[in-house]
UniProtKB/TrEMBL annotation:
Coiled-coil regions, chain positions: none
Source organism (scientific name): Streptomyces lanatus
Xref: SUPFAM superfamilies: Protein kinase-like (PK-like) (SSF56112)
Domain Aminoglycoside phosphotransferase per the UniProt entry, residue ranges: 91-290
Protein name stated in the entry: Phosphotransferase family protein
A Pfam family that the UniProt record links to this protein: APH
Length: 373
């Protein structure tokens, strides 16, 4: 997004105040411990906030499992309600429980979760703490499709290795975690899992535009979804939700940690696959629009579908629907972020709200059925 506009603010909280309160809270969990090196990463998300810190403790963490006196941690904090939040609800226990389930029931690498704090008192909102995994993440700003970053300068065979390993993560997540144990991720409402998922997105859109200009393009996209609706959506599985390489920590070109589970839900496999395909296309299209070649042979839709089918025996279906759905969902988030920027005086709202959506051209082409042709 910063390729075309100033990066929107991610917090209204005071870092020094957070540091003081975090240190006080940590002492209640590990007497004698201190939080040191507290920082907010520049890539801090636009939904939940992330704090990075280290635990300095004079003693091992436990007799049965002695550990070093300093441990690198990350803290995920529900968004500040005063900051014109991107999402209406931030369910930190749900994220914490999801990560524990994935760690216990699959070999998908997730950071070890350490503590969940549901009381908003200590830091002003619920949060959880997890181990920090070292490695590198494909950047969003500037996007990894731009020239100069580590993924763009990698060799073709290295990117292919990363792509194969990433699709493998999705395959294992969908196959290994029993859906029956993820029922707490089932969305409310009537109908099957896909209908509930889309209904929830429609409700989110209505929340975003409440009292503000509606988006004709987004509403056209919802209507087009109904025309493309899958005849057989398939058995729902645990979906990661924000399934993209920008949420994975890599050691070299191998995944070592899968992050950001706030959008996890029970849904057809293709919901994750469509998101993976389209979020790469979003960055690739932006890169081409700015006169660069990008990575046109990386994370291609046909290769993702083929790799996934080989690994799972499930051939992805109705992907025109699911990639349109991903682009639509991303558009609603972008509209909310734009209205958030307007709230803070960072941008002006134009006469046509559709122009606030960076990928309005590709979304319109998907609605018209011409994008993939």
């Amino acid at each position: 997004m910063a390729a075309t506009a100033p990066r929107p603010r991610t917090t209204t909280r005071d870092p020094e105040e957070l540091t003081r309160r975090l240190t006080a809270w940590l002492g209640t969990r590990l007497p004698g411990a201190k939080a040191v090196g507290v920082s907010v990463p520049e890539s801090n998300g636009l939904s939940s906030e992330t704090l990075l810190f280290e635990i300095d403790h004079p003693e091992p963490f436990g007799i049965d499992h002695p550990e070093p006196p300093v441990r690198a941690c990350a803290l995920r904090l529900a968004a500040d309600p005063a900051a014109y939040t991107v999402f209406p609800v931030y369910d930190m226990p749900r994220q914490y429980r999801t990560m524990r389930l994935v760690a216990e029931r699959s070999d998908v690498p997730v950071p070890k979760v350490l503590w969940l704090e549901e009381d908003p008192g200590p830091l002003g909102a619920p949060f959880f703490v997890m181990e920090r995994v070292e490695g590198r993440v494909p950047p969003d700003v500037m996007p990894y499709t731009y020239e100069g970053n580590w993924l763009h300068t990698a060799r073709d065979e290295e990117r292919e290795r990363l792509e194969a390993a990433t699709v493998g993560l999705l395959a294992r997540l969908h196959d290994q975690v029993p859906a029956a144990e993820a029922e707490f991720l089932a969305l409310p409402g009537d109908g099957d899992a896909l209908r509930r998922h889309v209904t929830a997105q429609r409700a989110y859109y209505e929340w975003v535009v409440d009292g503000l200009a509606r988006s004709p393009l987004i509403e056209d996209a919802f209507a087009r979804l109904e025309e493309l609706w899958p005849r057989e959506p398939g058995t729902p599985v645990l979906n990661w939700g924000d399934a993209r390489i920008g949420n994975i920590v890599y050691d070299g070109f191998e995944p070592v940690a899968v992050l950001d589970w706030e959008m996890a839900a029970l849904a057809p496999r293709e919901v994750d696959l469509g998101w993976t395909v389209y979020l790469h296309r979003f960055f690739q299209d932006l890169t081409v629009a700015f006169g660069q070649r990008g990575l046109p042979d990386f994370l291609r839709r046909d290769r993702i579908e083929a790799r996934y089918a080989d690994l799972t025996g499930h051939t992805p279906r109705d992907m025109d629907f699911y990639t349109l759905y991903a682009a639509l969902r991303h558009a609603v988030v972008m509209l909310r972020i734009a209205y958030r920027q307007a709230h803070f005086g960072e941008v002006a709202v134009p006469a046509d709200p559709d122009t606030l959506i960076l990928h309005h051209g590709s979304l319109r082409a998907m609605v018209q059925g011409s994008y993939w042709s």
